[in-house]
Amino acid sequence: MANVSVLGTGRMGKGLVKVLSPYMSEIRWGSRSVERAAKLIEENNYKNVQAVTYEEALDSEVIFHFGNGLGNIGCRRIAKNTARYDCGGSFQKYILYVSFRLFGMDE
């Protein structure tokens, strides 16, 4: 099974971790505040979720990110209308990025 990361501890990140955790053997929960992610993991008694930095989360094979942009985690889109991002290092990442703007919501 693929190594999965969820970026962000906002309402969408919390919801996705809650939905995925019963079905995934390991989830990395990336946050600007690892302490906040760790607190949420403890409060929800997630056994298979690990709090990590954004940099650590970007090592995963599958990355979910909900927000208004990926620049805040150091990534840039490689080609318009693709899911390919350059996040540094010698490889590219495919990131499922869902913009709140698509749904008329702000973070």
Automatic annotation (TrEMBL):
Pfam families: F420_oxidored. It comes from the Bacteria. InterPro entries: NAD(P)-bd_dom_sf, P5C_Rdtase_cat_N. Gene3D superfamilies: NAD(P)-binding Rossmann-like Domain. Residues 4-64 form the Pyrroline-5-carboxylate reductase catalytic N-terminal domain. This is Pyrroline-5-carboxylate reductase catalytic N-terminal domain-containing protein. It comes from Effusibacillus dendaii.
